[in-house]
Amino acid sequence: MGQIKSEGKFICQVVRPGEWIAKTRTGSLYIQIPLVVVDDSSEHGSTCRHSAFLTDKTFERTTKTLRECFGWNGSPDVAEFEKFVGMEVLAVVEKDDKYYNVRYLNPVGSKPVAASKDELDKVFAEFGPMIKEIIESPDENEAQEQKSAPAPKPQPQRPYRTKNEADDDIPF
């Protein structure tokens, strides 16, 4: 069927790549996880790939994702990655400028975990003023319409009556 051609969440199965560990032109290492869509969506049979980067910025998130989705023990041994083949994950696919990319992997059947009151309080303490500012500012579309809408032109008073208006004076 080819590469995936739509955004969304898809249940995918891991297939064996040519190489598990690869590197970008700039030298960043990543674990490539090729996937095939196995749910009954319109993308059934399509392929995509998740690149689990191993950089300073992404290492913690990558490790947690691989542990949550595949039970990875952290070993760089290729035999550990071979265990991923055939496992199912929920792939979140988004489109960038040109391509559809797997942005996130989640375990199949994963559900959101409720945030604690302390976590919510911390987030709202930090971002509360920004949230209020966003809520109170006009929507971009509304602001643009207000700026671009021309002022209504005053209607001139007609010093004459139209034929229909003149006929209204006839008593029959």
CATH third-tier fold name of the largest domain: OB fold (Dihydrolipoamide Acetyltransferase, E2P)
CATH class of the largest domain: Mainly Beta
Query: How many H/I helical runs?
Result: 5
How many β-strand stretches?
Answer: 6
Which secondary-structure class do the elements indicate?
alpha+beta
Distance between the termini: 78 Å
The rounded Rg comes to 29 Å
Largest sheet: 6 strands, antiparallel
| Percent range of helical residues | 25-40%
Residue fraction in strands: 15-25%
- The shape is extended
CATH architecture field of the largest domain: Beta Barrel
Number of domains: 2
In terms of per-residue confidence, which ranges show pLDDT below 50 for 5 or more consecutive residues? none
Helices and strands, in order, run as EEEEHHEEHHH
The oligomeric status of these chains comes to: single chain
- Report mean pLDDT, rounded to a whole number: 83
Give a written overview of the molecule.
- This protein has helices at residues 59-70, 78-82, 117-136, 140-148, 163-167, and strands at residues 8-14, 21-23, 29-37, 47-53, 88-95, 100-107.
- The protein is of the alpha+beta class and 172 residues long.
- It folds into two domains: 8-107, OB fold (Dihydrolipoamide Acetyltransferase, E2P) (Beta Barrel), CATH 2.40.50; 114-146, no CATH class.
- Strands 1, 2, 3, 4, 5 and 6 form a six-stranded antiparallel sheet that branches.
- A hairpin with a 5-residue loop joins strand 2 (21-23) and strand 3.
- The radius of gyration is 29 Å and the shape is extended.
